[in-house]
Amino acid sequence: MTALLEAKGLEIHFGGVVAASDVNLQIHEGKNLAIIGPNGAGKTTFLNICTGYLKPSAGQVFFNGKGITRKSPREITRLGVARAFQIPQLFGEHTALENLLIAAAARERRWAPFTRLGQIPERAEMMHLLEMVNCVHVADRPVEELPEGQRKLIDIAVALALKPKLLFMDEPTSGVASSEKFAVLDIVAKALTESKVTSVFVEHDMGIVERFADEVAVWNRGEVLHRGMPDDILSHADVVRDVIGEEI
Amino acid sequence: MTFMSLVPRLAIPLLLIAVALLPFLAPWSKVMLTLALAKGLAVLGIVVLLHAGQVSFGHALFFAVAAYSAAFLGQAFGGGELVSMVLIGVASAVVVGLLVGLFVVRYRYIFFGMLNLAFSMIVFSVLEKFYHYTGGSDGLQVARPLVLGIEMERPAFESLLFYGGLVIAVIVAWAVHRYFDSPIGHMLKTIKTNETRLEYLGVSARRVLLVGYLVSAALCGLGGVLMAVAQGIVTPEYAWWIRSGELVFIAILGGAGSVSGAFVGALVYEVVRTYASAFAGDVWQMILGFFLLGIILYAPRGLIGVYGSFMGRIGSNTASGKEAKRRAMEAAE
């Protein structure tokens, strides 16, 4: 199996904190990879390096065999890597639909000054995307008025609007009420399958990991400790002790 | 559809007609209105940047660059020709806008504002000190130019400037309105709300802001040329920071971010300034100052916002009150 994204020997320190120490990881096409680990283990740092927000002090990242280590978030996005954030990064004054339309216009490079945003050809496609994430009924509401759960979904939809090959999601269910977590991720998982996107998501809820991940990578102190199938990993003694605690 | 719900839609055409007819009733108002139009065009340039959440305290720079280009052209060709003066004035504002813009779009907020101020003060000093080329603080005369080869008498020329300026202002306002509603115009707005996401959509925020910056430089340039030919003289004061501040003042007075507010603000400002300086002598700036204070404290959406809520209140007796208010706001923007 060829790797869609491959990290080799990533190193980064913030003062005395080791956020990445010889991180090697391959991300395979068509799989949902969950990244788990205690707080401060370097999970978000890994996402930040892969999407160009941080430059590692050593090591390299390849996407489709192409080096992307020194590229900016903008260039990496253009190659087909999208990102959804732990805190939704949306255009607050714009409506949910407009947020998606802006993403579609960016994807298709619609720079003509006299086309109206609301009338670009991707409008129907974006409405469909809103449907996929169950947000059609709030299409015309400014996103700053919407509850966090919906904002999370729209944030993911904005990323999907770019038609990425790979999607990074940083805690897609944080800020979502625990009673709704599964429902939200069901929606996301369905949208991912329909869009045929490979995904990597950071998650703290083991129930979610068990249900949605095809593979799990365990992080601690800037290192990838284990990697494998969810069942094997979640019952692994070290993982139970370091990550899951006494839950199991 | 009730009469009241029609008013907001008709407001702008009615105002336009009123402004267009005013010189017939009061011929002296023509020059004042032309100056208001010139400032309105420049203020529209400020409004474009306000959409990105950025305030420039140096945009008089482009006003002056275009005005002086027109003046140089006029002096070089024995009076010059109006259309070429407008085109070359705007073009030079855009070229200078590109040079300054490539640098300042890397900065935001106070740094953006102050860097613009710095550039404008450099140009101000150059205009003051290079006496042999710029006439120093006396400035340069701008003789009445030909219009497409035709020589015009003063009253006819003033009418042409005013009505020509009015037509251009309407076209430009429409174009800016469309630009704001285009994908790249909406992206300009996202520089204010979430630049991080914009970059993560694969879009260069700097490039989006640069496009807005060039549009705003062009608009200020257009205003500058119109002002230069209407006044018949250009002075370094065109580039002075007070002029830049005045443009920002009018933008906020009219309604920050509103296209029609730029012109309504400029019109009110010019009228208040003309009368206040005639009747209140030395204290007119203070009157304007209190006026701005009132706007910021009680009507942060400016005159256009005041108008919008006024229409909403009148209409609230009817079923379509809310609708009228919404439409008034939409029409205003």
UniProtKB/TrEMBL annotation, chain A:
CDD domains registered for this protein in UniProt: ABC_Mj1267_LivG_branched
Alphabetized PROSITE patterns for the sequence: ABC_TRANSPORTER_2 (PS50893)
Keywords, alphabetical: ATP-binding, Nucleotide-binding, Transport
GO CC terms, sorted: plasma membrane
Name of one Pfam family that matches: ABC_tran
Biological process, per Gene Ontology: D-alanine transmembrane transport; L-alanine transport; L-isoleucine import across plasma membrane; L-valine import across plasma membrane
Every ABC transporter domain range: 5-246
GO molecular function: ATP binding; ATP hydrolysis activity; L-isoleucine transmembrane transporter activity; L-phenylalanine transmembrane transporter activity; L-valine transmembrane transporter activity
Keyword Transport: yes
Protein name: ABC transporter ATP-binding protein
